[in-house]
Amino acid sequence: MATNGTYTHLPLPAPTRFRQLLAEQDIVVAPGVYDGFSARIALEVGFDCLYMTGAGTCASKLGQPDLGFASLNDMREHAETLANLDPAIPLIADADTGYGGPNMVARTVQQYHRSGVAALHVEDQIQTKRCGHLGGKHVVPVDVFVSRISAAVAARKKIGSDMVVIARTDALQTDGFDDAVVRLKAAVDAGADVAFLEGVRDEDEAREVCRLLSPTPVLLNMVENGATPSWTPEEARALGFKLIIFPFAALAPAYEAIRSTYAGIKKTGRTGIDPKFTPKKLFTIVGLEEATSIDEAAGGSLYGKV
To answer: Where are the transmembrane segments (predicted)?
Structure first.
C-alpha cells in the first residue's frame, strides 16, 4: 500500500494469521473473553489469540444460561466487537449449531467473516443446545452434522475467506467415544480444518482422539471443574492437542471479584477498590492512548489533557 511514496505493510488477515499460528506453534493458547473489557485485558497481557465463549456471551450480554438463548445476531455482534479491538490478533468464536439448516450455516460464516472472526466452531447438538459440560444433551444424526460443516466450508470458499472451520461434536456423552470419532472424521472429510471433541474425560481419550484424527489439529476445551480434567497447555500439547481454549478464564474470577465488591458495599458502604485503579487507569486499558494519538494526528488537542 503506497502513501506519499512510502509503503506500509498491512498486517495479515486474522484468519491467515491464525493458520500461521497453528502451523508454527507447538500449541495455540486462547483465553476466553466474554466482553470488550476482558478482551482488552487479554490483549494487555500479550496473548496472540483470543476465544469468544458462547457461555460467556449468554451470561454477559443476555444474563441467561447457555441453553440456546443467543441468536446469530447476538453472537455476531459480540464477535465483531471483540475481533476488531485489535484486528491483528485472531479471534476464535463459538457459532453454536450454525443457527439453522445449511443456508443459515452459510449465512453465519458470511457474517462472522465480515465481522473479522478468524475461526469458528460449529457443533452437532440439536438447535435447542446447551453448554457442553451440562447433562441431557442431544445430537443430530451424523449426516445433518456433516451438512452443517459442508455448508460452512462451501460458504468460506465462495467468499474467498481463509477462516478456519472447527468441527465440534458433543456425541461423546450421548453416543460414546467411537461414534464421536466417526463424526469428527466425517467432518474432516467434509473440509473441517480442526476437530473438537467436547467433554474429553481422561488422558486415554485425549491421546486416542488426537492419534485417530492426526494430522488434523485437535482442540481442547479446558473448562475448569467440568467434565474434563484440568490440564496446562504443555500437558495438553504432550497429549497431542494443537489448540487449547479457556472459556471460564475471565468469567470465574470476574464473578468472585465483582460479588465480593458488591457485598462490601452492601455491608460497609465501601468498595475496597485498589487506589491505583483510577478512571484514567480504566480508560488506558481500553484504548485511551490510541484514541489520543488518533486525535493528535488529526490536529486535535483536547485528549492530551485527560
So the answer is: none
